[in-house]
Amino acid sequence: MGVHIEDLSFSYKGTDRLILEHLNIDVQDGEFVCLLGQSGCGKSTLLRLIAGLESPTSGELLFDGEPIHGASLERGIVFQDYGLFPWMSAGENILLGLTQKFPDVDKADLKKRVYELLEAVGLDAKIYRKLPKELSGGMKQRCAIARAFGIDSPMLLMDEPFGALDAVTRARLQDLVLSLWGKEEEKKTIFFVTHDVDEALLLSTHIYMLGQSPSHVILDERIPEEHRVTRNTQFDDKWILDLRNKLVMEMNRDIACRVE
Ligand SMILES: Nc1ncnc2c1ncn2[C@@H]1O[C@H](COP(=O)(O)OP(=O)(O)OP(=O)(O)O)[C@@H](O)[C@H]1O
Description:
Blueprint: E1 3-10, E2 20-27, E3 32-37, H1 43-51, E4 58-63, E5 66-67, E6 75-79, H2 90-101, H3 107-120, H4 137-151, E7 155-159, H5 167-183, E8 189-194, H6 197-203, E9 206-211, E10 216-222, H7 238-259
Helix pairs in contact: 2-3, 2-4, 3-4, 4-5
Adenosine-5'-triphosphate binds at residues 12, 15, 19, 37, 39-45.
Protein name: ABC transporter ATP-binding protein
GO molecular function, one term: ATP binding
InterPro entries: AAA+_ATPase, ABC_transporter-like_ATP-bd, ABC_transporter_ATP-bind, P-loop_NTPase
């Protein structure tokens, strides 16, 4: 489902510092959107607004044409720190999400679905009974992704989900999310926060770069289907390389503005 943001400004309650100012965003159903920008520029804040955890100070924020009022299972969230309850097993964490979303479905059927989801994210059935502390970071994030895709929200908000992972695990999970997103007939709309230009170019169909203080959109780039790249072709496409240079230059310019 699409998101339309018009002239949005935002300050956290009890403060008068503007974090976001005159922000405009237009995202269509099924797009994979990456939010790029320097640390502290307001990417997570924007995600919290779309999640319904904060409300705009002024301006318009519409989800599927309607204003957002509070959090909803229509918009799943995946955090960098996995967001798993430490006292529940991995399987129970995934099951909890399914029970909340599908309260009328038989528990045994939901449990079966948890095993299917574990398999879909490349985890052994034995993981069901493990506590999060017994799992590696990559395994925990696979569980969080299984939970998010299991809930089957039309929109997924991912806040630097791979930021704490090593490069190899990160690459595997990028491929996993892309393949889960790509194989769905009705694709989820994904908002994915990252600092990493190459990650954004690999994953997204649409990139927004946010500038700092207060944050606003400094670049809005859609990646046409014919220029979608894979890990192996990432550096072959001239159009993508030009876009990469543009993104890196804008990011550097934004850092320089801040330093001066
Ligand atoms: N609850 C809060 N109350 C007041 N200010 C906040 C709150 N949360 C974040 N901020 C401020 O809002 C600004 C934007 O923070 P935000 O976490 O959205 O940035 P970010 O781009 O996601 O950063 P990073 O990439 O480092 O995660 C920062 O200056 C931060 O200090």
